[in-house]
Amino acid sequence: MKTETTIQGLTASLHPARSSRKIIGFVPTMGNLHQGHLNLVREAKKLCDIVVVSIFVNPIQFGEGEDFENYPRTLEQDSHLLADVGCDILFAPTVEQMYGKQPRLTNISVAEITDDLCGKSRPGHFDGVAVVVTKLFNIVQPNVAFFGQKDYQQLAVIRQLVQDLNLPIDIIGVPIARAADGLALSSRNGYLSEADRQTAPTIYQALKHAEVQLHAGETLESVLATIKATLSNAGFKVDYVEARQPNLQPVSNFDRDLVLFIAAKLGNTRLIDNLQVKFKA
Predict the structure, then answer these.
(1) What CA–CA distance (Å, rounded) separates 65 from 166?
(2) Strands 237-244 and 258-266
(3) Where do the annotations place (R)-pantoate binding (predicted)?
(4) Is 280 a known ligand-binding residue?
(5) 245 is in an annotated binding site
(6) How far apart are CA 60 and CA 136, in angstroms?
(7) Rounded CA separation 169/26 (Å)
(8) For a Cys staple, 213 with which of 35, 92, 149, 218, CB 3.0–4.6 Å?
(9) Which residues pair with 217 in a beta bridge?
């Protein structure tokens, strides 16, 4: 596995693959990798000739009071994990390499689908994601890019971005990777205390119980209220519990496929999860 820290170096490393028209797959990450990230790489290996993984903690997607400074940076460990799953090129640029020394005057904003859910709680977050992903797409120029479905709203933002800007990239969403007890894998799980880690799977349990209730004929309103009560009683500070259509449009009844979304804090750790629920006519 090659490691490149500059845009020039990455371009040179990818030149042979481009010249021979090989399919380039891309997995953008912020590092501190877990099995969810590695599943993205495994999926990319199945479909692509060359797989590039980026590790870049993007400062402009962190809001005031969020954990940019403390976000775990584990490049050496990550490098070993990526080599083990067959990553071909690791791109690990500095902030200066990505953003230069001059002020950035260009922003990229995807409207409507960023107005609520995490967009409401973390203003400016998805603009920061849209900017860095567009930059990375321009640098790597992949044929296919892979994103986890745990960040369902982020995946929707990136699909919209690619469609609106006519970027010639296929976007593939990969199912959520979970621990044995159901907790969605996340780099932020490492912030949980031992006691909170025992409580955290309540999120997934509440989602699965909600699925059963919906199929049993409970109203969507009562099911969402039950999730909120379950989480609050378990010690979570609930940010939101919402249902949306798969395209993130509002839904008021369980009369079609929908996605249940949760964001909640446990201690100081913000956790998100979602569950896609199929409608059975």
Answers:
(1) 35
(2) antiparallel
(3) 61, 154
(4) no
(5) no
(6) 14
(7) 10
(8) 218
(9) none
Domains of the chain and CATH, by start: 1-172 (3.40.50.620), 187-274 (3.30.1300.10)
179 residue type, one letter: A
The alpha-carbon radius of gyration of the chain (Å, integer) is 19
Pairing of strands 24-29, 2-4: unpaired
- Residue 150 annotated as part of some ligand binding site: yes
30 is in an annotated binding site: yes
Residue 37 appears among annotated catalytic residues:
yes
pLDDT tens for 61-100 read 999 888 899 899 999 999 999 999 999 999 999 999 999 9
Q: What is the pLDDT of residues 39-68, one digit of tens each?
A: 999 999 999 999 999 999 999 999 988 889
Predicted structure pTM score: 0.96
Which burial class, exposed, middle or buried, applies to 198 when counting CB atoms under 10 A from its CB (0-12, 13-18, 19+)?
A: exposed
Is 177 annotated as contributing to ligand binding? yes
Tell which residue, 163, 162, 157, has the closest CA to residue 124.
Answer: 157
Q: Give the distance from CA 101 to its chain's centroid.
A: 28
Please name the residue that has the structure tokens 């919209």. 160
Q: How many Cα atoms sit within 13 Å of 276 on the Cβ side?
A: 12
| Edge-first strand listing for the sheet containing 2-4 | 2-4, 89-91, 50-55, 24-29, 144-148, 170-174
CA distances from 194 to 58, 73, 183, 241, 259 (A): 28, 21, 14, 25, 30
- CA 95/CA 30 separation, integer angstroms: 12
